[in-house]
Design brief:
This protein has 353 residues and is mainly alpha-helical. The chain has 13 helices and no strands. Helix 2 packs across helix 7, helix 2 crosses helix 9 and helix 9 runs antiparallel to helix 10. Its main location: membrane.
């Protein structure tokens, strides 16, 4: 009985070599993962600086001077924030961690006299200790705030990695098309035009996304700080920073940032708690229907559910830095997928024709 030709598996020397090369490339990428993350971070920062560089160049600034000015302003701004903003922030954070559980000692969320459902639940809900929950949150906050200096050292993988990121991103920003030149160096000639074109489109979206995300966090942070300050909620600065940072996570981020503010409001009075809850709902609606569609969704075009998935993957693989790199990398993948779909559509039309 002759074997079916369709069932014959042909393994050539070329196939074996290509397989070994792929395995070797994956292994090399794993061992050099820290360096790859540094390189990706440098590319993202350079891409984020590109729109600002172009804006200054329109005002007759030489590219080198424009990049230097941008980096000086960025470094000065971060230094000023660390000097003037971070100390009071962590003073409030430490105070919040120490006083938050005590503020709920006299706050019984499930008081049978106030809860008409207690007769139905049979006291099951009353067994939930809100104080214990807040105590666990306190432990987490103290752990994070106590490790501030350690976190600063490990945020970018250490001081050496941080310096390397700054130097590489500066070099890529100074070069007119630094990343493009690198891609031309490592890409086969047959794919060079497509790869550089893909990067040019992705770089534009990454830069616009970074600008949009910073603007979104700034707007929400300022709104939350002003609103909570007017309502008289304690620790408005900490809660505003939390709201700004959690904007990185669609849907769940704003909800998570609202929980401690609402709890603090209810711990003071029922009226204040309802006002804080209503305020966060208004801010959320304002963001969903106006800010986010204008500054993020239309620029990048990535569905929010994809953003959530890639953020969790990035956090799992590389921590905070992985989260920051997740959406820019997803932008490149989405551009690649879009090109693939277009090619499939053209192939089908050609085949049918």
């Amino acid at each position: 009985m002759k074997p079916d030709p369709d069932q014959i598996i042909s393994i050539t020397t070329g196939t074996i070599i290509r397989t070994l090369m792929v395995i070797g490339a994956v292994a090399l990428a794993y061992f050099l993962r820290d360096l790859i993350v540094v390189l990706l971070a440098s590319v993202v920062i350079a891409s984020a600086a590109e729109p600002f560089t172009r804006s200054l160049m329109k005002w007759r600034f030489p590219r080198l001077l424009a990049v230097v000015l941008i980096y000086v302003v960025a470094v000065f701004g971060l230094s000023a924030m660390l000097y003037f903003f971070i100390p009071p922030l962590f003073i409030e954070l430490s105070s919040l961690a120490n006083t938050l559980p005590g503020s709920f000692d006299s706050f019984n969320l499930f008081d049978p006299n106030l809860d008409p459902l207690s007769a139905i639940t049979g006291g099951l809900v009353s067994s939930i200790s809100l104080k214990e929950i807040i105590t666990e949150i306190q432990k987490a906050i103290i752990s994070e705030s106590g490790g501030l200096f350690a976190a600063t050292g490990t945020f970018f993988g250490g001081a050496a990695s941080l310096i390397l990121i700054i130097v590489l991103s500066f070099y890529l920003s100074v070069q007119e098309d630094g990343v493009g030149d690198f891609l031309r160096l490592v890409t086969p000639v047959s794919h060079e035009k497509y790869v550089t074109g893909l990067w040019a489109r992705s770089r534009e979206k990454i830069g616009q996304w970074m600008k949009g995300q910073l603007l979104l966090g700034l707007i929400i942070g300022v709104l939350v700080y002003l609103g909570l300050s007017l309502l008289g909620v304690k620790y408005a600065l900490v809660l505003a920073v939390l709201a700004a940072v959690m904007e990185l996570i669609p849907f769940f981020g704003p909800v998570i940032s609202a929980v401690p503010a609402v709890l603090l409001g209810f711990s003071d009075s029922l009226i204040l708690g309802l006002l804080v809850l209503g305020f966060y709902i208004v801010v959320q609606q304002f963001e969903n229907h106006l800010i986010y569609p204008l500054v993020v969704r239309k620029i990048v075009g990535i569905p929010p559910i994809i953003v959530i998935i890639v953020l969790f993957i990035g956090a799992r693989l590389a921590g905070i830095l992985g989260m920051l790199l997740a959406v820019p990398l997803a932008t490149i993948v989405m551009e690649l997928a879009s090109d693939y779909q277009k090619k499939k559509h053209i192939f089908r039309e050609t085949d049918n024709g």
